[in-house]
Design a protein that fits this description.
Blueprint: H1 2-7, H2 12-23, E1 44-48, E2 54-57, E3 62-66, E4 69-72, H3 78-85, E5 90-91, H4 92-99, H5 103-115, E6 119-123
Helix pairs in contact: 3-4, 4-5
Length: about 120
């Protein structure tokens, strides 16, 4: 019991929930027909599939935790990571504008996340 109470500190519950949520796998959602990568198309929409994704910022840039995996991205991608971690759908155009990155670089980041089964890309109708 002493070890348990000694481990308690401010924020321990939030730390546990973030860690637990980041290990939950995402819902399988195919990003067809984009099997060879995500094209640089401003009209495409993306969302993360795990519900407990979260991020933090370290000395190199944003660190995204989702689906039991972790990625460290370059500092200019922070706005993209923030937007995705909210769990909402966003267009590539919105992500490019928010981050001041070219759509091609946003597409490269999304390709990595889709390949890891933590993001899904689609066309809105």
């Amino acid at each position: 019991m002493k070890e348990f109470t000694a481990a308690l500190h401010d924020g321990v519950i939030e730390e546990f929930l973030c860690a637990r949520g980041a290990t939950a796998p995402g819902r399988p959602m195919p990003s067809l027909p984009f099997v060879d990568g995500i094209p640089a198309d401003e009209c495409l929409h993306v969302r993360l599939t795990p519900s407990g994704a979260w991020y933090e910022v370290d000395g190199e840039g944003p660190v995204l935790n989702a689906g039991g995996q972790q990625w460290t991205f370059a500092a200019p991608t922070l706005a993209v990571v923030k937007h995705l971690a909210k769990g909402q759908t966003a267009s590539m155009a919105e992500l490019a504008v928010a981050s001041s990155l070219p759509v091609g670089q946003v597409a490269a980041l999304l390709t990595e996340l889709v390949a890891a089964d933590v993001a899904a890309v689609s066309r809105r109708r």
